[in-house]
Amino acid sequence: MVNKVMVQGRGKYPRSARRSLRCSLLISGVMIAVCAITAVAQAFPNKPVRIITSESGGSNDLVSRLIAQRLSATWTQQVIVENRGSASGIVALQTLMKATPDGYTVLYYGSGLWLAPYMQDQAPYDPLRDFAPITLVTSSPNMLVIHPGLAAHSVSELISVAKSKPGMLNYSTGSTGTSPHLAAELFNSMAGVKIVSVPYKGGGSAINALAAGEVQIMFPTVNLGTPLVKAGRLRALAVTSAQPSTLAPGLPTVAASGLPGYESVALFGIWAPARTPMPVIDVLNKEIVGALNRPEMSDRLLSAGLNTVGTSPQRSTALIKLDMARMGKVIKDANIRAE
C-alpha cells in the first residue's frame, strides 16, 4: 500500500498534501514580503530624501522648499531640493524615472506631467505607468481678463461679442500648453467661439501685450493679472475655478457668469517612481498632507497665489485621470503641439 501511494503521488507525499504544502509556502512567502515592506516603511526615512523640481526661483521651487523645510523639521533626516529645469521639464521627469523606487527621490511637478504626452507624437513616458502619485499639493486658478476697450463687462457679454466677431478677437498666452493657454482653449470649446491664440515668449510679455491693446483677452494666473487689474489697465471678468476663490476676492466664476460647467485649474503634486512600496508612499502622504494642513503653510502658499490641496494617493489618481480625459480632448481638438 505504501508503494502504491508513493507511485500515485509521484513522490513522498500524496497530491493533496503537496498542494497544501505549496499553499503554505506561498502564504509564508507573502507574509515575509509584507513584513519586510512594513519594516522598510517603519524605518523610513533613514537617509536624506530628495525633492526634484523645475528651475529655481519659481513657484515650484518655493513649494518644494517649504515642504522640504517642514519634513526636515519633522524627521531626523534632511530633505533636499534639487532643481532640474532644462528641456521643458523632461530632465526632472527622467531623473525620477531612473531613481530607485524606495521613496528617497520624489518629484514636485504640475499638470504638465500628465498633459504633455497629449501634445507629442511619441511621449518618452506614460504618466500613469511610470509615476506613483503621493498627493496633490496645490491648485491655482486663472483669471479671465480683457482690455478695457473691449465692450464686455461679463462672461455672457464676452461670449456674445466673440460670436458676433468669429476669428477677430485674440487672446495672448506664454508657453504652449500652460494653464493660461489651455484655459482659453477650453473657453473656446465650451462657448462655441473662435478666439485666436497669439503666443508670446512668456506670461509677462503676454499680459503686457494685452495691456497695450495688441490683443483683447487673456487667462493669466491670479498673481500675474491682479496688479494690472488693480491699476485699471485691465478688466477682470471672472475666475476659472469651480467655486469663488479667496485668491480673487469679489470675482464670480466663469461657470456662474455665463458658461455653466466651466472649470480650469492647474494642479501640482508630488510623485514617487512607479513600484515604490505603498507603505512608504503612505508615510510620505501622511507627512506631506500634515504639513499642508498647518496654518502657516497654507497662508504662505496663499500669498504666493496657490491653494493647498492634500489628497490620498487614490484620490490623486482619480483627479488626474479626470483632468486627462477633459483637457486631453481640448488639446487634441485644438491641435496643440509641444514647442
Topology:
Elements: H1 2-9, H2 15-43, E1 49-53, H3 59-74, E2 79-83, H4 90-98, E3 105-110, H5 112-115, H6 127-130, E4 131-141, E5 143-146, H7 155-164, E6 170-173, H8 179-191, E7 196-199, H9 203-211, E8 217-218, H10 222-230, E9 235-239, E10 265-273, H11 278-292, H12 295-303, E11 307-308, H13 313-334
Parallel strand pairs: 1-2, 1-3, 6-7, 6-8
Antiparallel strand pairs: 3-10, 4-10, 4-11, 5-8, 5-9
Characterization of the model:
The chain is an alpha/beta fold. The chain has two domains: 47-141 and 265-334, Bordetella uptake gene, domain 1 (D-Maltodextrin-Binding Protein, domain 2), CATH 3.40.190.150; 143-257, D-Maltodextrin-Binding Protein, domain 2 (3-Layer(aba) Sandwich), CATH 3.40.190. Helices cover 46% and strands 17% of the residues. The protein has helices at residues 2-9, 15-43, 59-74, 90-98, 112-115, 127-130, 155-164, 179-191, 203-211, 222-230, 278-292, 295-303, 313-334; strands spanning 49-53, 79-83, 105-110, 131-141, 143-146, 170-173, 196-199, 217-218, 235-239, 265-273, 307-308. The strands form two sheets. Strands 2-1-3-10-4-11 form a six-stranded mixed sheet, sandwiched between helices. Strand 6 (170-173), helix 8 (179-191) and strand 7 form a beta-alpha-beta unit. Helix 3 crosses helix 11 and helix 8 (179-191) packs across helix 13. The longest helix is centred in the first third of the chain and has 29 residues, at 15-43. It is elongated. 38% of the residues are buried. Mean pLDDT is 90; it is low at 1-10.
